[in-house]
Amino acid sequence: MLKSRNRVADNSQTNRKKMPKKGGKKKGGKKGKKKTKTVAGADAIIQKLLKGYERNCALTESQPSPWIRNALKGCLENGTVLDKFIIESSVVEKEGDMPVLLEPLLAAIRQERYIHIRDLRIWNYPMSHENTATLGLLLEKQCYPLRLVECMDCLMEPYSVMRFARSFRACDTLTTISLDYNEFGDEGCRNLSKGMEGNVTVLSISMCFCDLGPESGKYLGNIVSRTAVRDLFLDGNNLECEGAIDIIKLCAEQANFEAFQKAEKARLKAEEEALKAEQEREGRHRVHSALSGGMASGSEKEDLGGDEKKKKKKKGKKKKKKEEGPPPVGPWLRKLHLADNGIDNVAFGKEFAPIIFVRVLKKLIMGSESFEELDLEDNLIGDLSAREIVEALEHRKEEKMGGVKLKTTHKLQADTFKNICKLGAGLKKKKKKGKKKKKK
């Protein structure tokens, strides 16, 4: 896999050199290429990092990651710095083969003070507690502005998650965390929730196929309601209806309250406009009657054309763009992916559980302006619950709110499924390096 990925990267670099410059859209164009980051003295910075990494690998009897080595050499050719690092364990097939280790890379980044790293992706690497602690120390050094950390299929234990999450408080640049395919269960989710206390920077958390049960719902609910997290990707777990309700309960109540406030504000505004229109009609009638009697003053005559002048002045003014502030902390959700989570009525005594869940979800869909995506694929919610979702989507359309991209099971009546596809189209699945089947 690594050889093929390297071959693709090398081909793209040679093609970039041969292709002539083309005219057309530059900045802001849909087909424009993303610019690579250029830094003064980039060659010297990359050269030092590459030498330090190879030296650390020699000291630890490991081999450098082929992907990282090729990416660094490509940066030397282009005069750019590398901001995305991907490390993946290698298969030791015969005696004498050296493994790819994580420690030499993290040590080289710290030794050379490489402050240009933004994304760190660790794939299919068996991380020990020592590895997690070293990664946590890198995050706690505030000179490394990491935005994304992904540990996919790394066999992380609950205790390791606790050490990893403890570093979030010190890293004020981290916005995305992905821990997919680490089966640390409810205990690991609880440890992550503790580490997220007081965090105001992380916006997205992904824990797909992490063996989370209904108990994890309350921990995830705390994360969503007390931090700035607004995107949750939780496919392939066992949250069931109980856990799913715990996640969205406070968000649904907040959305319901905001909808009430919005309706009340619209009612007061309509009353105010009606009163203002009535006062304007009375004023015009008074001026008109005075003019017909020849008793109007100069100021009253000027009032007749005053409204038109005000309208012209308003049209001439341009609205200033609002500066984006820090993300809000509170019970708001933007994306919620709960595919294949046992949200159904199969369990004994839970015949009405999907209806209870969907009615809470309905409040969220109908009232939240920020809600954009919902994935309920591979959950047998039933046709009655699906109709409730259709009503919520129709309400958003009538109120001219933003649409919600939605995926759900196809095991519904034809007309219900058709309406859901019509009102909630557009959701695309997040691409993964690989896919595992959930254990039954």
From TrEMBL:
Residues 15-37, 310-321 have a biased composition (Basic residues). SUPFAM superfamilies: RNI-like. Keywords: GTPase activation, Leucine-rich repeat, Repeat. Residues 274-283, 299-309 have a biased composition (Basic and acidic residues). Residues 1-37, 274-334 are annotated as: Disordered. One of its GO terms (molecular function) is small GTPase binding. Signal peptide: none annotated. Coiled coil: none annotated. GO terms for biological process: nucleocytoplasmic transport. GO terms for cellular component: cytosol; nucleus; perinuclear region of cytoplasm. This is Uncharacterized protein.
